[in-house]
Amino acid sequence: MNPNSNRFLSALAITAIAAVSLNSCKPKGAEAAISGDAASKVYVAPGKYDEFYDFVSGGFNGQMSVYGIPSGRLLRIIPVFSTFAENGYGFSEETKPMLNTSHGFVPWDDLHHIALSTTNGEHDGRWVFANGNNTPRIARVDLKSFRTAEIIEIPNSAGNHSSPFITENTEYTVAGTRFSIPIQGNPDVPINTYKQNFKGTISFVKVDSSTGHMNIAFQILTPGVNFDLSRAGKGKSHDWFFFSCYNSEKANTLLEVNASAKDKDFIMAVNWKKAEQYAKAGKGKMVPAEYAHNIYDEVKHQATSTIEKQVLMLDPKDCPDMIYFIPCPKSPHGTDVDPTGEYIVGSGKLAALIPVFSFTKIQQAIANKTFDGTFDGFPILKYEAVLHGEVQKPGLGPLHTEFDNNGNAYTSMFVSSEIVKWNIKDVKVLDRVPTYYSIGHLSVMGGPTRKPYGKYMIAYNKITKDRYLPTGPELAQSAQLYDISGDKMKMILDFPTVGEPHYAEAIPAEKIRNNSIKIYKIEENQNPYAAKGEAQTKVTRNGNEVHVYMTAIRSHLTPDNIEGIQQGDVVYFHVTNLEQDWDVPHGFAIKNANNAEILIMPGETQTLKYIADKVGIFPFYCTDFCSALHQEMQGYLRVSPKGSNVALMFSTGKNYPAVDTTTKTVKP
Amino acid sequence: MNPNSNRFLSALAITAIAAVSLNSCKPKGAEAAISGDAASKVYVAPGKYDEFYDFVSGGFNGQMSVYGIPSGRLLRIIPVFSTFAENGYGFSEETKPMLNTSHGFVPWDDLHHIALSTTNGEHDGRWVFANGNNTPRIARVDLKSFRTAEIIEIPNSAGNHSSPFITENTEYTVAGTRFSIPIQGNPDVPINTYKQNFKGTISFVKVDSSTGHMNIAFQILTPGVNFDLSRAGKGKSHDWFFFSCYNSEKANTLLEVNASAKDKDFIMAVNWKKAEQYAKAGKGKMVPAEYAHNIYDEVKHQATSTIEKQVLMLDPKDCPDMIYFIPCPKSPHGTDVDPTGEYIVGSGKLAALIPVFSFTKIQQAIANKTFDGTFDGFPILKYEAVLHGEVQKPGLGPLHTEFDNNGNAYTSMFVSSEIVKWNIKDVKVLDRVPTYYSIGHLSVMGGPTRKPYGKYMIAYNKITKDRYLPTGPELAQSAQLYDISGDKMKMILDFPTVGEPHYAEAIPAEKIRNNSIKIYKIEENQNPYAAKGEAQTKVTRNGNEVHVYMTAIRSHLTPDNIEGIQQGDVVYFHVTNLEQDWDVPHGFAIKNANNAEILIMPGETQTLKYIADKVGIFPFYCTDFCSALHQEMQGYLRVSPKGSNVALMFSTGKNYPAVDTTTKTVKP
């Protein structure tokens, strides 16, 4: 018997879901009937392409994964918040600044959510955003290069969970605190003064419409709740943003019981247009706030990190009519806006029904002041006044809802391990299918946009157990693909995922594939250490710092012999890949490095820092099989004792060694 | 025009493969006809299992990947030589020692080859070995837990490429130097004294037949060539090991030209039984050699790293009849032994034919001294005397050969991007299929064993280009699955892979799946910092070192509030997962850590080190979605200024805070 199950059940009991045991994940019913043509529906024959790119958050791996749908094949892992030995991200001198934060270099984060950029509420295929949950951050990946282009830290925050959801024209990407903490003022307070001292914030990060560059426009101070998820309005609700929050009890211990005490928590509705006006009108004030802002320049092929020092904070006390609270049963996770922008679906993970709110009614209730008291001084809209309807008996543990192009909604049910399809207008349940097991988020193709594509839906499950061949105690997580083109949902594929597939967004392949770049043009390379031809290769010394300007091209590293390095030298290998062909990266590694390798794309320069701490001969080589003579693409570094009289010299192989002891910069 | 192509072509011209351009990867012929039932052949319906586990090296990502075959689904990435933010490998205190080396902590390596353990030459499903190419090492993964159990460094080596191939009963796993270097003696010599001063070694690492523990039995000093791959004999050739070598020219610069000067390089045949006898007879000597030996204990849940100081070296001058050289055209990559042990196939990557050597003839040539001179003092066997036959016109750039259960061989052709099937007995070509593009290794199910399973073959390609939807300049690498059950090979699936799928071995699922463990038993947990129940949780201080003995169980971390930490403290969070259910890991992360998270399997303890460098309130939480109330599985750490009078205290949530200022170790 799970020694904590009583505690857990007591929380559940309050919600009238008394008989649930999390230990029996397997739904009782038979598995969904597998249609005979499922194989042909998911099979992408050699030489053919998937229909959709699926951008999947990696959860606790800190990366973003790209899957092809319907095949479920992993097309690429894009490193975002975690170091990635595979291509040197976070190890090369050029990429290290991407992982800088206000408290130094951080090699990891917990990437939960994905937001593809939109124009008029439809995917435009330009960028994909992701949140860092542990060190509060938002990242932007450029979909031309599939590279992390920018990371901005969110100050006055802890647990950036309700993020990076975006407004319809990608005007803003948002960030809300999952954990409230002391904001400004004295940070060293007793934890049990939570109710007095702990606050939340939500941040609106402006996205430049042409470059994508992010800047924190303003933050809004909020009550000390836990924000979970959020969604922007659409169409008529364009000016609003909806944040789900739990722990309106403001508990600071035993949250699994104490944050589930009330019947209803809230969805917080924020009029961001009004907030924008308040910010412009000088209603906020600049407050001290240290946060890193990191940008990767794909022309210089290097990242820069700037530490910002203040941020504009709006106190809602000074900003009337900006924030309203909508009661929502109970500990809501998802707050999802349908394609028309009229309906807002709350998914109270401990609730036995799914409330659907009407934007029109919300506006009426605000106009008519149909309030039901206040929360921390903010008006609470009357539940019945803003309710469109309740989906009754949907299942247990509703978490998240997405939409198709035919007026249907699909809600994931964590506790009862199923997906429920229901009609938005009449809130009637239409169909249900099992998931294996314990689904978290789901994703309909284009599901959060104004024009969903439908066709496929994917369940991202939290528990895998027996779905695949076992791999010891640690298992891949389970995703399941459903055909939703007909009236009934049909499970057609199980596919495992890396990390935790927390959330995902899918986009038709044609919106991205033709803009995807294949190489970097060598003539545009502005890395200060680039050698744009073998004639530009050199080795220079400045004190104990040695710079090797190296080139890589099939099948040679130039220089391939280097001598005159002394023990204690710090050697920077700046390797430029001279190739201008698609898919001919080179790699570089050297023996005895306490570092990784670097992988250099055609036209690019990357730098590996090497501490020459031992005397001897250390081979280096290309790590990415590039040609029939890849294995011969190697060289040697000679490290002599400190004070040795071996002069700095290097070779392109023609007339080595050649020494010019006057300049200490030697060319054969 | 590739500015280096003249240099490259001059090397190729010597080999009579003059007209090859690496830039045009796409074979001219039409793609292999896709059989109409290919979809059903590779489709594994939801709830069904793959037939084979495929253990795939990750190349430059340093990890090992496990794929299901025939679906091509990635079942798991097993971290081996590189840090892995996804589960805290190389970040947790328990796993950090696994990446220790003689030159400190190294966060990366280049994992090239896989060897599944065998008994009588057949897979026994116990362990899988992998080589570290950059820092010379061999790793052993335990197939009960799919965890890296042991890593041993190889001294007197550089570029451990021809590794970790094993003998028939897993008596030894071997390691040969890809790069020759100065071995013993003065390591600081001019690089152009290569011919005088640079040597190779091959190492025989004994594997304990019951525990799998590795120890270096002996090393053999060899000529200064580059060893590429190797294979043990089988059956009649059981006592022998065959190593391919290139750069018998002993060039030290411009290897793509200078190491391709000779018509033939060699396969080095080593009588390891004789070597073993010489070692036992005291023919070797102990030489200084610093190398790390790291073992992960799955009962203590922690790794230890020992630095060894010497190794037994055999000088072949003192060991007659142990080593012979077999001429092999040209720069051989693969040296592969057929299931009977009679035939050894050399794959000279610049050769226009594939030589097949006869073990019987090799023995006759040795007995009759049918030599053709010497290489560095070792007898060279006469090519014609040991040749079984030559596969004529197989294609361009033969790299690697595996075998089926019907007397057929399959050789990968890098330059002409194809696989050629041929009959071992009459060396006649039977079939050829294209690969997309530039295949490196291939893998037949059970292909390197005495009893191949056949049925499927996989091409691991080096160039991907247009095989999948584009993902910017960096692409996943391409694997292709072939049905080889009939006379003709049929391509049935493209599947992308993580890292570089350098080599792989596949094993029938039933040989592993029933031995795979699901949890660690909590009562067997011997981690000294384990709390085996919430009653055992505590927080202790010793100077500025604080130890938190924490438990995780759905849906609570105990303690969940901790105060009395002072700025500058080093806090160790020892988190024990109390769950005893399959697939209920918990994770742990804390804000402002300059570290990763940890992922803790049921019954296990893992430790995260946290430097309390800032004053404030820092939330911690479970990072692996575990229950409906996972989001509530959180707590707070309060860090006060140094010298603060806030006493050390913590909470299980019941009567917090409670303070005992006398002991500084406080329990409510």
TrEMBL record, chains A, B:
**UniProt subcellular location:** Cell envelope
For this protein, the record's Pfam families field holds: nos_propeller
InterPro entries linked: Copper_CuA (IPR001505), Cupredoxin (IPR008972), N2O_reductase_N (IPR011045), N2OR_C (IPR034205), Nitrous_oxide_Rdtase_Sec-dep (IPR026468), Nos_propeller (IPR041114), NosZ/Cyto_c_oxidase_sub2 (IPR051403), WD40/YVTN_repeat-like_dom_sf (IPR015943)
| Location (main, coarse) | other
One example GO MF annotation:
copper ion binding
From the UniProt record, list the coiled-coil ranges.
Answer: none
Top-rank taxon: Bacteria
Protein name (database record):
Nitrous-oxide reductase
